[in-house]
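Have a close read of the entry that follows and walk me through the local backbone shapes. See right below:
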Amino acid sequence: MKKIWYWGLLASLSLGGCSPSEAPALLARVGEVEITLPMLQAFEAKLSAGSKGPVDHRANLKTLVDRELLLQEAVARGLDQEHQVQENLEKREVKELANQMMRLQVLDRVLVTEEQIQQAYAQGGWKQQVVTLEIFVPGEARARQAAALLKGGKKFDEVAVEYAADRVFKMPTKAAQQFIYSPQDAPRAVVDVVSGLLVGGVTEPIFVRDGYVIAKVEERRPVALEAVREKIVKALQRTQKNELKDAYMIHLERKFNTQEQAQGMELVMGVLRGQVEDLTAEQRRLPVYTYGDQQVNVEEVLEVALPARDQWPAVTKQQLVGELTNVLFPRTLMAQDARRKGIDQQEGFKQWRQRELEDLMIARLRALTLEQVEVTQADLESYYEAHKELYRSPAMAQVQEVLVEDPDQARALADQVAQGADLVALARAKSIRKNTKGDTLVVYGLQGPIYGEEWLKAVLNVPLGTVQGPLKCKGGYSVFKVLDRQPQSYFGLDQKGVFRSVKREVTESKERTAFNAFLVELRQKRAGEVEIFEDHLKMLAVAKEAVGV
């Protein structure tokens, strides 16, 4: 309510008898362009969605002034007519037109009822979740080796010690990861297989992005409707959306008479299979599909297919067409349908297009400004050394443990182990520890707050293979044995993930510095063309203070 009165007071201030050019609603002028109170309001409304702090009108106005300076500089350089800017604008326009048709023809028609939710829960396998342990292996050959060891009778956690890797950095983790799946979860390749296995079943290596997964079904867990209601709703919405989209796409393909062009398709497949490398400009423009009076050329198809190729099990025409059906065809055909319906001529779309053009002009100006920025190996090494802690792999230990709440019970269990009782068997029967993977607890050097500092210190220092305890820790009293331990280490700059991260940080820092310097020069060059109406800004502050905003 305060905000309403605040902007109302500002509006009343602009009616105080000033001439239009002096009205308090006019906050700044850059050349012949005026920046007004409504423009600042619109800008701050966007900022308020992600900010809870006080509004700094002066700083926000400065941002709008800088944006106008950049736009005018871009126009002066002719960037509004530059081929690259216009080409990117066309791509954005196609995407936005397709999005609008997707909303009109598909999303706005999706409706999930309570009856459908109840039926899906009763009949769609939603009453159970599958709990798995998974070993991620980056390469196919090693994944096959791991699978062979499992078939030969080696325990799952033992194979994980040798083969399991982190899914991001691809570094060894020496432990499997636990996942809990509902019927429609991702990755589909894994969920589809484990859903059909009995408890204890182990999959063959399953191709996922960047590697292979070997999964073992640990448990089938009952789950109530309310726990999976949101997932069911999303799954039903997704099904309805796909059905509506498929029907719409069939209509469009018939309407525009989509035809495959053999020469262009052959060229695309040659590039994807590595048989063709450098394409001429003429080859890039060859049609792969035609629809109506439009076409999809080789370059457009490759823009979609090349980034996706590494995720395909094999490069086949079927795989390509599937990717195009999911990404490119809906975009191009829906955009064409939108143009036929005149959506691109509506005033709201024209305003959107102008904003996108301005954003692209500024982005192109920034790119031209940063062409001389260079990142050297010395820059990367310097940043890495200064921020090495960010790339630390903490100490890790694999532990067998029985955890109980009563110290006397813990001492009795320790005595039983000393007399030859099996620690694993006791843990299965007595332990209250819940986050073990198989019969092994994997502990990291940063987890003192979880397990207790004294217990973690002991785990990271006691001799391997010796039974310890009982020792008090968070949750009770622990009798444990450390099976294996890895000291703290660092991911090196030679690791691809680390290198990419460091290069990104260094590049962004250098680019930020260079662009800020360019902006300072631009402000100085155009200082005589910028006018800030300080009295009007003060009125803004007075209005803000008057209503306590």
In short: The longest strand covers residues 211-222. DSSP finds 22 helices and 16 strands in the chain.
